[in-house]
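User: Some background: our group keeps a shared notebook of sequences we're curious about, and every so often someone picks one and asks for a predicted structure to add to the entry. Today it's my turn. The entry only has the sequence so far, pasted here. Could you supply the structure so I can complete it?
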Amino acid sequence: MADWNFRDKACIVGVGNTGYGVFPETDAVGLGISALDAAVADAGISFDDIDGVILNRLPYDRFAEVSNLNTPYLQSTEAHGRFSAVALMMAAEAIASGQATTIALVYGNDGRSNAMKYGGGAGFWAPWGFTSPGASHAMMWRRHIARFGTSSEDLAHVAVAFRDHATKNPQAVMQKPITLDDHQNSRYICDPLHLLDYCLINDGGVAWIMTTPERARDLRKKPIYVSGFARQDDFSQNSYPADDFWYPALQKVASQVYDRAGVSRDDIDGLMIYDNFSPTVIFALEGLGFCAQGEGGAFVRDGTLQLGKGRWPTNTSGGHLSESYMQGWALIAEGVRQLRGEVPADRQIADAKALQFCLATPVSASIILRTDA
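Assistant: Of course. Here's the predicted structure to add to the notebook entry:
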């Protein structure tokens, strides 16, 4: 990929987060600033070192006023979780091009306190009233079942693996272990998806600090390099369930991200997969080539995604299904901590050197993080 020159040009040097739960005493800005305080301390820098800010789900003007961060580089992104990947890519490009040296990326969400509902508000773009993301993913999974012979129980293996990881994470909201039977016996929200196929809705904040490799050498923590990333949008089916599971877009991402990072799929030690609903984990695994299309259900059986059992330990914090729905941001923070070797031993991916963030949505994307340039 001679025309792509962003490999290892930016590093993540600090991560921070709040607790996850219900915090009516504050708001999204307060949660974001609390997470940023933690990330700044983690990196060993001060607010004065920050010359760029990228925000998600936060009002940029109020955040800048409250944080007193009046930087020459400021971006505000849409609320969708897909922008966790977009924000990180924007920061890497801004750092590589010299637009900023040290960027704070901040996410805050007070959806639980505000009784956030995903769906509703039908209008011109959804005249039939089909606005629920859960219903859309349920229809996609029903189509996958019909086309490939997968099943609801295949999704149970995803939910059980991530819940097992959450029981090893004191910050995870869901601490009670579950079994395959628990998944199958949980109530349907939208057939064929059960309650345990849905992400959580919680308040919380997450922040990352990104900078140049040169600057990173003088900081407190081991830098984690952004080695490669790729993105392919497909909004051709945005107003109704995608009948191709974003497979062509994900294949395009897979054809680029490993070459750009200078690694192969076999070099990846673990995965952080955007799990707003359990089927998206299967869609990402198939689309990015970890298994053939239609074989994702069989692929995740018998602990493939589980720490200590499978080749591809995935969402070791518990993910959106069991830690908290921080829309990709907490998954990136978990990946950084895994690569630093900072998580407890029973949650640590052994000798982790390269992790891959995967996102199957109308903005399909993947990012490879490594310990060494």
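Suggested note for the entry: The mean pLDDT is 94. The first strand starts at residue 11 and ends at 17.
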